Amino acid sequence: MDKLLISNFAASLFALLNPLGVLPIFIGYSAGEKRNVQRWLALFVALTALAILLVFFFAGSSLLKFFGISLDSFRIAGGILLLIIGIGIVNGDSSKAAKNVAAEDQNSDFRAAQLVYRKIVIPLAIPLLVGPGVIANVVLYASEAEAKKDDALFAGLIGTIIVICFLVFVIFLSGRWLQKVVGDVGLNIITRILGLLVAAIGVQFMITGLSNIIVGTLVPEILKVR
Known about the structure:
This protein is mostly helical. It is built from 9 helices and no strands. The chain has helices at about 5-15, 20-30, 35-65, 70-90, 95-100, 110-130, 130-150, 150-175, 175-225.
């Protein structure tokens, strides 16, 4: 088993998921909820991220090929979605949706968390946590394990995904503590700043995707014509 490969995968996966960067946005969506509801939400989002990562780990390249979707096309689509979401966060729309949904059911923390989760699974789980970069990273390392035909390495990479998603869950659980430290005004400022960054990330995704398509597809075609 290649321990260096696994450690590199763990470091890159955690950096690309960036749960610390997504945490203020999670807090913005769940700030008005009870602690138990926030715990359920953190669990739901972490499990969703885990499920998506495992799906792309086992069938990522085949899935994209089946639908005829290139990674750059996926990156552009994710960038457009992030841009729209980032604008909404800057305008203060992120927490309102969660609070309105939670008001539908005050009797069950689990049920309230389900209702909020339906509204925030996008963008939190995908594409903020599991974006094109994360998917590309997972597909790349899965292909590496397949090429080496190392079952221990394959299992180690799966275990790494599970551990990292557990860390995401733990980090999101700390959201209540952060909310107490910075206060409502500070949280509002942080959330809007992060909204601006989310929009900028979306624009960067689109630029990267378009650049790769132009350089990798259009330029060779133009040179052929000449």
